[in-house]
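RETRY 2/3 - previous attempt timed out on the joint model. Re-submitting the same 1014-residue input unchanged.
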Amino acid sequence: MVDTAFYINKGPLTLQKVSELTGAELKDPSKSSTVIHNIAVMGKAGAGDICFFYDKKAKEKASQIEATACITTEELADFVPDDVVKLISSDAKRAFLKLNMAMYDEKSRGFGIAESAKISSSAKLGKNCVVGENVVIEDDVVIGDNCFIEHGAVITNNCKIGNNCRIGVNAKVSFCEMGDGCYIFAGAQIGNDGFGFMMIDGKHQRIPQLGRIIIGNDVEIGANACVDRGALDDTVIGDGCRIDNLVQIAHNDIMGRGCIVVSQTGIAGSCTFGDYVVCGGQTGFADHLNVGSGAQIGAQSGVMQDIESGAVMMGYPAQPIKDFMRQALYLKKALKNK
Amino acid sequence: MVDTAFYINKGPLTLQKVSELTGAELKDPSKSSTVIHNIAVMGKAGAGDICFFYDKKAKEKASQIEATACITTEELADFVPDDVVKLISSDAKRAFLKLNMAMYDEKSRGFGIAESAKISSSAKLGKNCVVGENVVIEDDVVIGDNCFIEHGAVITNNCKIGNNCRIGVNAKVSFCEMGDGCYIFAGAQIGNDGFGFMMIDGKHQRIPQLGRIIIGNDVEIGANACVDRGALDDTVIGDGCRIDNLVQIAHNDIMGRGCIVVSQTGIAGSCTFGDYVVCGGQTGFADHLNVGSGAQIGAQSGVMQDIESGAVMMGYPAQPIKDFMRQALYLKKALKNK
Amino acid sequence: MVDTAFYINKGPLTLQKVSELTGAELKDPSKSSTVIHNIAVMGKAGAGDICFFYDKKAKEKASQIEATACITTEELADFVPDDVVKLISSDAKRAFLKLNMAMYDEKSRGFGIAESAKISSSAKLGKNCVVGENVVIEDDVVIGDNCFIEHGAVITNNCKIGNNCRIGVNAKVSFCEMGDGCYIFAGAQIGNDGFGFMMIDGKHQRIPQLGRIIIGNDVEIGANACVDRGALDDTVIGDGCRIDNLVQIAHNDIMGRGCIVVSQTGIAGSCTFGDYVVCGGQTGFADHLNVGSGAQIGAQSGVMQDIESGAVMMGYPAQPIKDFMRQALYLKKALKNK
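RETRY 2/3 succeeded.
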């Protein structure tokens, strides 16, 4: 049950309304005025709740549903108890998303531009921006409309941020141009110097890092993640990328559109990713690699060579996932036979 | 030697007092009025210091102890030079802890509620709280007695924090209910949206994250660690858990009591841990796994399947640690024979 | 091309000047008054730009250079088109560094000591320090000359910081003595309690952490990295070390001079590193290990035993890199033959 201390419940909704919002068909039209107050997970839903059932492995659990109503598929509907009102959807997961968005909201940000925010007189903010306490916005920064800059965030000089962006608590954005609809999570560090040195007389002399970070539209970068700016050229994150918490993206990495990079993955410098690449958690990439569009790399893989488009890889060193699984099996058998 | 620039030395103490505090028996009662001024590590302890010797592998080092006194075990006492006053303890490590706590303290926090702190008028703070500079405490937050909210920390609306808690520098706590005696370290990010998306028309559409984070009593969460809030249900961290720095805990993870999660471990969404699970550093867990009570998972393991209670696992993929070690040996031999 | 929104371009420069600055020899002295305005990467350099070519694998790319001038080696010069002015250097990479530093600079910090900074009256700052917004400097802190303390950074009581240091946005420095020329990046957490517990009556009782962090000269510690303070003794980072983003260094680790620790590496407690050790990204070290000077450990390695000076290791568990590679090959072959 969603806690109204933290979220707004826009309900209750009649099942008629639920059907309209989700496109799910109400099997028994006589129930169209039945009212639901909350979405809940299957095992916890009770009277007044609606739940979703689209996981084929959860048939037994489904038989114990105590919710008032359940959105499910044609195929799975018979596993739901008879006294639960059923709504049938061809895409129950998407119906979940739609109802979820219709029924709940985060609480309003509740403040305008905090007096404690330090905003340079040369910075430009669009309409309806919310700026939290102790935010610092340096000279010549340009921020679009409807942006939410959370407490303690720092945006250094000359950065450009599009419309509808959100910069999390104590995050830093520097040397950066960012499109619309981006969400930089709390504590993320965008735009630090890349890790580049040259050994001169026994000292690791820093190579000045003179590039930028170019972030497309609709990009998310997770909490405490780090994206370093380029050396001469830029680090680039394409439209629609989703970068999870604690990820490291090094200087001059270039990511295409819609890539998903799960938590704690590290990508060394000058890698180039195509579109819709998916990296499992804790994956590592050596520098200067090319990873083709649609490639999928399993969690904890150590990638040392280029990866072709559409390849599914795993292991340390990374190899086709089939081979990784076969090797694990081979070793298991080899030991059994000893 | 403990630096009194940073810590308070509550000594000196007579060996009589040391014996009382630790339960260690002073072999030579004539030394009961001998005074010690500091605890020091074996190799650095000198006149006026007391050291501890309970590591059986350090017998040679022990023979060179120059401390005034040494707490050790009956079994190891003979390895300590004769001119060092010996105190015998059946649990010398615990004696160390006790003397340590009796002899030293961190310096006082030295401030009350900083004027620069922004505390909502609807927030409630208990007695004797210390609130640092630039702290932000939003609407309807409830904080218990004797809490220490360090500089720059942010606690967002409606969070509940128990008694005797400490929230570190620049940490963020949101969507959270926390028990007593918890310590959230500097830069930790508690309560961000989980990493959940659905692909719709080529876009990764965010699934609203509407759950909370429920933290028990006596929990520690390390520096720059991230704990995401649940999707519909909650993310739960049980009593007495110890989460190290840079750990990632994803949405809807549920941890039992007393779990230890070492640095840089990542736990994907919807995992359920029993009590007293121990994870070595950099371990990774796939989503939706069950890990039984008392299971121990070696560092850097990649866990892809459920783990039974009490199992000791290691490897990538994780397997019984015995098998992991045997495989490493098998491969070594196979190459030698070639 | 370097974006002058973010950086200062100190050019243009004549090729005569470029030759003087870099030591590279201008093959055709008649071009000495030709002017260049920017350094650019080979594939993007055009009229008015200078580029560098010293990567032997880039010969084909070099044949398409459109820059006005190119610094390259004697050996590679013939691969550069004839209409590009060539400068010959015996160390073209170092020439790049020199020209880079001569031609560009970061923009001035643009502020003195921010009014919002909270600096204890007992703290001492040297000459020409820059202190950002909302910085907190506690009692008895001593900071040298020419230091740059960025917005939101926190330096807790009694810390000592040398000359020419930079403490990044929202970083925390505590229980620390630091030499000259250090750069602590944004969000780094220096000086938290080490992760040390003792199980007493079913509870993980924290062992008080009473040591310090001693950082030498010319040390860099990356964004969101964590360095814990020692238990009784100190955690030590030697001169010239380079620690990358999101690295974990635990209590009582001791690093020699000039070590390089790449992103997301984790070093458990009480390890001792010699000088110039290099760790690839995501490497893990068990506690109490000795790693000899000049050792190199490949990315994602799991180190469970001491490493000798100069050894080159890789794998999980870590082994000589030659063996790691041979094992990978062996497994590949074994499966092929099945």
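Chain C has two domains: 7-106, 171-323. Closing ticket.
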